[in-house]
Amino acid sequence: MYKIASKTVTIIVLLLMATLTLVACSPSEQAAQPQDSTENAASAAALAEAKTAAETAEAKAAESEAALAEAQAQAEAAQAEAEAAKATAEAAGEATSEELEAAQAEAAAAKAKAEAAQAEADAAKAAAEAAKTEAEAKTTANPYAPYAGETIVVSWPSLSHFEKAKTLIPQFEAETGIKVEVDSIQYMNMRDKQVLEMSKPQGQGGY
User: Fold this and answer.
1) Average pLDDT of the segment spanning 79-104
2) Are residues 135 and 158 located together in one domain of the fold?
3) What b/e sequence results for 3-31 when a residue is b if at least 16 CB atoms lie within 10 Å of its CB, and e otherwise?
4) What is the pTM of this model?
5) What value, to the nearest 5°, has the Cα angle with vertex 75 and ends 74 and 79?
6) Phi and psi, residue 95, nearest 5°
7) pLDDT per residue over 120-141, tens digit each?
8) CB 159, CB 20: distance < 8 Å
9) The domain containing residue 175 runs over which residues?
C-alpha cells in the first residue's frame, strides 16, 4: 500500500510539472508580451532607419568627393589653358585684352566650381559622420534592438531549475523583445534522473 501511494504521489507531481511546462511554453503566454516588447520593436525600427540614413549619407559623401575631384581637374586644366594662351599671345605679339580676360574668367569660374564642390563634399562627409554616430549610439543604448521580434530556442538544463526559467524567460523577453521557446528539459543530477525514470512505464529504461 505504501509503495502504491508513493508512486501515485510521484505521478501526480510529474503531471503537475508537465502542466507547468505546457503553461510556460503556451502560445497564450508568449502572445501576452509586455509593453516593453513594443518599445523594443520601435527601437529596432529606429535603429534600422538610422543605419539607412548613415549609408545614404556615406554614399552622398562619396559622390560629392568624386564631383570635387572632377571640378578640381577642370579648374587646373582651365588655369593651365589660360596661362598657355597668354604666353603664346604675348610671344606672338597678337594678344588682345579681351582674349586674355576671357581666358582668366574661364579659369576663375572653374576654380569657383571646384571650391563649391569642396564645400558640398565637406558637408556630405559631416552628415555621414553624424548619421553613423547616431546609429552607433542607438546600438549601444540597446544592443538587442536589431534582434527584436526574433525567436530563439533554448534547452533548460534541469527540472529542478525550471521554476527559475518561468521567471527569467518572460523577464528576458520583456527587456530584449526576443521571444524564447523551450525545446527540452534535461536532468543534471541524480534526483532529476530518478524522477524521470520513475515516470516511465514499467519495463522501459530511463532517459
Assistant:
1) 70
2) no
3) eeeeeeeeeeeeeebeeebeebbeeeebe
4) 0.37
5) 115
6) -70, 140
7) 888 888 888 887 777 777 666 6
8) no
9) 149-199
